Amino acid sequence: MVAQTYQLPDLLSFFAQKPGGPISPHFKGAYQGYNENTVREALDREASKGLHATRDLHSYMITRRETIGTRPCLVLMRSTRRLYIPDSVLENNAVMGMENAALDMVYIANDIYSFKKEQGDNGALNNIITVILKDPDTSHLDLQGAINYAGDLFKAALDDFYTCRGRIPSFGTEMDKFLSAYGDGLIDWAIGNIEWSVVNNRYKVFCNDSDRRSNVIRLGNRHNLHARTLQMYHPPDD
């Protein structure tokens, strides 16, 4: 079986032929946001190379939602699952909040699990751990403290996701089913990103199975970091 590749115009043409909603404009808008913020990210990375350069965590998080590259994929996910959700529903504050919280979970987890590799490649200049260490409000933290702080941000994003999901009003029986399935798909993305980050060889997060079970990330010979477990669901009460 030969894998088939597509250029962006091919994808847009494909979406234009699909019934049930303006998938093509959604994809173009999401992809444009990704490109614009990737340029901004590159400029921020160059400006932050100085030893004493500061970073703003809030601004980084807003930009990182787009540069993680997941938002265009969410359009694809809605299309493949035949979730034809109109703009008037997607722009509801609770729906947007649910989507943004899912994106936050994806990039926070990605930054934590990729930190070891990025530190070796380029000093992890554009990683939430480094930004936490350079933000004046959190620069008092050590490296382990920054890892823990990022874990707290992930937990806050997870809480925001469920809060926003619970506040979505009814849009009718069929649309409510679409939105429920969309919420499930967003969680699939957050969980799948974590599982992929751990098991693939790109990041080489853990040195061995023992470290994976105890959640220890080893950085060279100088640091042993015990990162918090990113727990997607609370265990049920007995």
Automatic annotation (TrEMBL):
Its cofactor is Mg(2+). One of its GO terms (biological process) is isoprenoid biosynthetic process. It comes from Pisolithus tinctorius Marx 270. The keyword Lyase applies. Belongs to the terpene synthase family. It is an enzyme of class 4 (lyase). PANTHER family: BETA-PINACENE SYNTHASE-RELATED, TERPENE SYNTHASE. InterPro entries: Isoprenoid_synthase_dom_sf, Terpene_cyclase-like_2. Keywords: Lyase, Magnesium, Metal-binding. This is Terpene synthase. GO terms for molecular function: metal ion binding; terpene synthase activity. Its EC number is 4.2.3.-.
